[in-house]
Amino acid sequence: MLFDNENFTNRQRRVIYEIGRDFRERLDHEKRKLIVLNLIVLFIPILFGVLLSVFDNNQPQYYFFVIVFIFIVGFNIYKKIKDLNHLKNQDDYIIGLFYADKDKRVIGTADKKLKQVRLSSVIIALVTFFISVIVGAIVFNQGKTDFDKLTTVEGIIEEAKYSSEKIDIKLKDDDTIYRITSIYVDVFDYDEFNEVSKEGDMITFLCDEKRNNFRPVYYVEVNGVEFLTKDEVLKADEENIYIGKIICFVFLGIALISFGSYIYYKNFIYKRNKENEYLNLDFTEAELKELEESLNKGHIDINNEIYIKTGYPKSYLILYLIFGVISLGLLIGSVFALNELVAFLVLLSLGLLFGLMVLIGIYDLTKNFEELKGNKLIAHRFFKKKEIDISELKLIRITPTYIKFIDKDGKTFCRMASQTLRVGEIIEELSNRGVRVESDIVI
């Protein structure tokens, strides 16, 4: 939403009223669109969760995942519909402020939307491509089980434990766990195994080398009855490789579609939206000049008298001091763990990591700050200083975690954490001097 500004001109207020009138007629349509979009978002994870549950023997954690996601999306729908219902009782100007940064007719909206599409497309493309590469590397390097490389093991059954993910069989006088992994659990008839075999029977395995405390099993025979055959294992391997290839190509397809969608959006939809922008909510050069003259008439020399310097909440320093104590404790602990190499390395690494975080954090608090000095906004950042003339700032964007200051070229000049001390004063001063202020937070 757009923040109101007492210095808005009559022209800008007329534009805001126009946007409000148009969107008042579309509020019911906006509610329906909101519900449909959220239901589409909801459908994919529900389908994914149900499929996982079906193929994994109705495990309750998948239903829990679906219920939690329904609750989150449902709460989001409820909150946004509540906001829209509240808007219905407001005048056109308030509705116009709410939708001013979303209206496709407003100059600058197309550029902002392009950035959002680019960011989401890049994230989706990179994540899905990375998943595709990992799955592909595993699947295409994974052959079927080579029984010639397996070892035959015989022993007396002591106990067997079944779960949907594995079957562990323990032999007498043997500390090793012989495990039938999830790939072969479905083809292993555990009920028949319980009926035919009993404690003290002789069992034969074909198994691989020991991994941690277990050995993977690829063939099981008890009293001449085969419960996991070579053919069943090879068929399960083939199906597993086939499913892996499908997953690999699906994620690769999503990555390509995401990248292609951005190219299409940029070359067609963005250009069309850009051409259809005609409502200007920014101050024109003449309006800015008139505003500056008005401020000067109030006996304020903005070039010399305005000075605001940001700071940090003391609670941040206390937090970093706590991390410093944790770092020191971990480093001291590593000294007492010198005889255990793994524990020593883990404690030392964590101690150094926390220590580095503390040093960077304290330096950031004490050396990185912002100043509004006359007509200049100055940002001090890690061994360098940036400054910009206020006339070159176009937009201040407020989010729940940070405030972004954007220049007239659409580039981010700097970001300030939302908890930064006196950042509100800077926003108010810049707003009074014609910089547009928008917020992702509904007030």
Q: Could you explain the architecture of this structure?
A:
- It is built from twelve helices and 14 strands.
- It has helices spanning 10-24, 27-55, 60-88, 92-99, 109-140, 182-185, 190-196, 230-275, 285-297, 314-336, 341-367, 423-432; strands at residues 151-162, 167-171, 177-180, 202-207, 214-222, 225-228, 307-309, 369-373, 376-381, 384-389, 393-398, 402-407, 412-417, 436-439.
- The strands form three sheets. The protein has a five-stranded mixed barrel. Strands 7-8-9-10 form a four-stranded antiparallel sheet.
- With 443 residues, the chain is α+β, with helices and mostly antiparallel strands.
- It has three domains: 10-140 and 248-283, no CATH class; 147-238, Nucleic acid-binding proteins (OB fold (Dihydrolipoamide Acetyltransferase, E2P)); 297-439, Pleckstrin-homology domain (PH domain)/Phosphotyrosine-binding domain (PTB) (PH-domain like, Roll), CATH 2.30.29.
Helix run count: 12
**What percent strand?**
15-25%
Low-pLDDT residue intervals, each spanning 5 or more residues: none
As laid out across the biggest beta sheet, the strand order is 1-2-3-5-4
Q: Please compute the radius of gyration using only Cα atoms.
A: 32 Å
List keywords for this structure.
3 domains; elongated; five-stranded mixed barrel; 12 helices; alpha+beta; PH-domain like; 443 residues; 19% strand; four-stranded antiparallel beta sheet; OB fold (Dihydrolipoamide Acetyltransferase, E2P)
